[in-house]
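ok here's Methylenetetrahydrofolate reductase, seq below lol
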Amino acid sequence: MTLADQYSSDGCAISFELFPPKTPQGIDALCENVERLMQFRPKYFTCTYGAGGSSQRTTLDVLARVKEITKLPVASHLTCVGSTTEQLCDYLQKATDLGVDYIVALRGDPPKGSTEFTVTEGGLRYANELVGLIRARFDHLGIAVAGYPEVHQEAPDAKTDLDNLKRKVDAGSDIIITQLFYDNADFYRFRDDCVAAGINIPIVPGVLPVTNFKQAQRIAGMCKAAIPAGLAAEMGRDDSPEHQFRVGVEHAREQTIDLLENGVPGIHYYVLNKSDAAIELLDGLQLAGQA
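and the structure came out like this:
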């Protein structure tokens, strides 16, 4: 089954994003959470890696474990940061050898301490070039690319950002997974703009449950995602872990229900290697493949 085919059936296909833990104990805990998330019949799992490719080997190890546990397809993030074309191809070959099915192809953020992206000599400048490389040399891999409902922080305007997305799609992307957002209106506007621009591949919203307001502010600040005033006020009213968790999960559940009612083909959850919030917000909802 191709990556696009994951979104061709009735219902809402879901997937979960993980990141590579730093310790063996962390990997064991991650795998326990993956097993708990299997009750929602996800279509696949993705895994990021550290800035500049610092944890690429761990990412592949995590994906191999997840695939062994779940028997599901797995996807590795891949960025252009700090890598030559030869090194990118070497990683793609290692991923293929380990049974990775899909790639989330990204330009990548500048390394810590840098304010702008710098091309590695012999490397790639843009995500659409990475998509083209994968299509040319590793065409068996499914490709997801990133979309930005509130516009990429480096784009001068929404049109330029959309033009860049169209280049990635035209280079051979299978699906678009969006950056996190907290107001569904931003996603619907983005989806309409994509359709108007002739983008006709599945557009999958990315949702991050807010269970810690300070952490959410930091993450949202990094990607320029706005936190609605009402949500911010309610979470700021009480900083107890119980209150933060309840309010954040309820907001994500309301987001999910509204997205389901508005016909999204799937939802990608940024679960931060935990399962409690996802289990709480998805409990009882009708998703693809569930009764």
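fwiw The chain has ten helices and eight strands. kinda neat tbh
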